[in-house]
Hints:
The protein is of the alpha/beta class.
Amino acid sequence: MKKLFIVLAAVAALAGCGEKDGGLRKFVVGFDADFPPYGFKDGAEYKGFDLDLAREVCARKGWKFIANPINWDAKDFELDSGSIDCIWNGFTMQGRENGYTWSVPYVDNSQVVLVKADSPIASLADLAGKIVGVQTDTPVQKALCQGGDKAELGATFKELVVMPNYNQAVNELNMGGVEAVAMDVGVAKRKMADLPGKFKLLDEIVMTETYGIGFKKGNVALKDEVEAVLKELAQDGTMARIAAQYGIEPRALILK
């Protein structure tokens, strides 16, 4: 009996979202609630492009969708402990390839530089001697630091200020605490739309990257289930429809 219990417990753990609530299988998505348009809080509701995609996956699978906002620094602990079933929130694959079981990439995202509308900064070269903000534990932060792919650029800055989230980084930019923010293009454009006339983007990009859904390493079964529906959403136009609601350009959608 003890051996049988151990086997059953192992199977349940591998199921990922096997826990049920009121007869429905739960699917718990970990996300950064300060990352519009992919995941954010609007009044009492959590919404965003990625969260709406996850809701649609659950609707088609007959699962109960649960949006679980997490501290971004604790995302790996949340995933490893089983508190969440995946990280789905503008989650960059580059630099993390071996840390998770990944879905196929579905969004092509660039890292850009946001500055105030009246800033004299017009190019990446103009960032020399400037204070630049970035969100913690992001690929662009790692790229700009010593040993990163963009370390040569980062070395020209007066200072690279690492902050908990992009809301704080953009607030600091608005108040003059930093002179530029290196960030995801989708988030940058959302901030520009929310605060019209306050900011502008440099024409040059820092780096390109793709977004995927990150599952616990080895949880291939759950990844395959979710990925199959994600492909359906791309093929039947649902993904493009949801993207349009959040101002995400069609060219950014790379899953066909």
